[in-house]
Amino acid sequence: MPKPGTSSLHEVLYYGLSDSRYVYCGFGEINGSYALNALVGLDTYISSVRCTGLGLSADGYRHRILRRFRRSISSARARGADLIVSAELCFGWPAQCHQQLRELAISHGLDLRVIAYLRPPLDWMASALSQALKLGKAADHSILKQLYSGHGLARKPGMVERLEVLADVYGHEALVLRPFLRQSLEEGCVVRDFCALVGMSRSPRRIHHHNQSLSLPGSQCLHRRNQALGRPLRGPRELLSRDGLIDRLQRLFPGPPSLRLHSAVLGDLAPFVYEQLDQLQRHFGLE
Where are the domains of the chain? Predict the structure, then answer.
């Protein structure tokens, strides 16, 4: 799902994969999410922008992605290597899109294994709120509900239903679930954990932790600045300025205390969130 260290994982696999027994299929893009969306026929705003920039139609972009997918398969097969695709937006796919990907993989002789990293709902919401602050939005209860609903986690299907779709399409035996909890990850790092899980003999030496959540004091400072600005950030200059500010805030306020949500903030989302937590434990053993 989005925000359990996916940006760092994509970047390390794209730039730092040194084990010759693995090939990362990024489709020419660091994050394979939008390419895979196009591959199964899901048109998104980002995909449309890329089509325009490349001078391609939606079908043209899809065929380009399919050619790159096949090249990656051929490269992996020639080296006797395993193929890795990392794309968090697949977490939100309906069952028919997963079925389409599975059929495409089987038609190319691939044996799929799905590794799903899951961030606890309350922690995920705090991280999503931190991300909204980075985009120049002021933090209030309405933006929190908008974020949660916008990612579809507050509507059916929720996290539990999405995992059931993965298990139904790919098979329970092919599905590996990993909670994004520091104490359960290899060296407390999702990248190290993934490398260990797939059996890489050479884990990347250096890992750039990309798009980390801010601490509570850093979030508070950014919130006040966004209130004073009174609007979301616009244009590359403001975004570059934002990046410099976030870097300074991370150095000024490193580590805990982290941003956390009081249950009272959830309002009418609370029953759904706690029901999901209960079902994750009962159905999948995720505590």
Answer: 1-119+180-210, 121-156+212-287
